[in-house]
Amino acid sequence: MTNSDHPDTLKYVSQNQTVTSKENLKNLSEDSASHLRISYPTPAWEKFGQHHWQASDLSDHLYQAMLDIGDGINLCIEAGGNPENPPLLMIMGLGSQMVFWPDDFIKRLIDAGFFVIRFDNRDIGLSSKVQIEGLPRVSQLKMMLRLQTGLSNKSQQVAYNLTDMAEDTVRLIKALNLGSTHLLGASMGGMIAQIVAARYPSLVQRLALMFTTTNRAFLKPPKPKQLYTLINRPESHSERDIVRHSVWFMKTVGTPGHVNVRTVREIAKIRYQRNFHPLGTVQQLNAILASGSISRFSKQVKAPTIVIHGSADGLLPASQGRVVAKTIPNAKFHLIEGMAHDIPAYYQPYLVDLIRNHLLG
């Protein structure tokens, strides 16, 4: 693919440079995917390293690239905004592709003065899939019960754990030459962000966490209806049934009165058509359960931290967010009345104000 393929977007191409990708980028031919010219939206993007950026097919505000971060892991990432602004790296939750960050939310963060980066975690979306032969099947319900009662799941053989996913995030920061950056983590992404901040304090300037947990024992459990969303499976792997299941899921865990069913269907179709890989969600849940409590990491976080949680969250009750704020030294807790385990349009202006004031204040 040459610069002329995107005349209105990719305005700058580094001359006489090539890069080989281990996986085909979306919407690229096989020939061009194996031998790409390094391209940047503007020359200012060169500081993020030699990567091939193309216009995102998910957002008008972002550009997409595939990054090889080592150990056989390639991450699909998107970025946008003024590259001179402070970077904000967004880490999504369990089984969620980066498209689950609402596009309007992304645009508000860009307008608030951030250079925004989001990505598909390993095993999700267009990022690398982890398949290890011979892993025994585990009982997730049994692991949940053990975790809740303070028993360890470390003896369970799983594909990876949360510290491995945190290393992915660290390698991404380094691959983009971000240096000390702001992290925004949601749900499982908030757990990953805590681990990164604890283990690599020099890489994390400030931290914003949304509806997340320390995963320690004896916390208030999910409500039965919301807990069932972690266990229930769609009727089949057809697009129709996956979309139906996604609507049911969001109606169950989302903010009452603020779930836009039309948008949920559109996102579910995009997710299915980008890449449908149910094993990834299973393995990410296993990673959470096998990792157990991350309190030891939470206690080591030195970055100024804000913890945001909805009062109507039945999947991770608000009391779990309060525990996060009490465990992280000097963290501030903000309860959002009526919000649940999602980022509804109604709450976005207030959420962005909270995040901006904390990270840039």
Task: List the topology elements.
Layout: E1 12-19, H1 30-34, E2 36-40, E3 54-55, E4 63-70, E5 73-80, E6 87-91, H2 103-111, E7 115-119, H3 140-148, H4 162-175, E8 181-186, H5 188-199, E9 204-210, H6 224-227, H7 239-253, H8 261-274, H9 278-291, H10 295-298, E10 305-310, H11 318-327, E11 332-336, H12 348-360
Parallel strand pairs: 6-7, 6-8, 8-9, 9-10, 10-11
Antiparallel strand pairs: 1-2, 3-4, 4-5, 5-7
Helix pairs in contact: 2-12, 3-9, 4-5, 7-8
How does this structure look, described?
The protein is an alpha/beta fold and 361 residues long. The protein has one domain: Alpha/Beta hydrolase fold, catalytic domain (Rossmann fold). It contains twelve helices and eleven strands. The protein starts with 11 loop residues before the first strand and ends with a helix. Helix content is 34%, strand content 18%. Helix 2 (103-111) runs parallel beside helix 12 (348-360), helix 3 runs parallel beside helix 9 and helix 7 (239-253) packs across helix 8. The longest helix is centred in the C-terminal third of the chain and has 15 residues, at 239-253. The strands form two sheets. It has a nine-stranded mixed sheet, with helices on both faces. The chain has a two-stranded antiparallel ribbon with strand order 1-2.
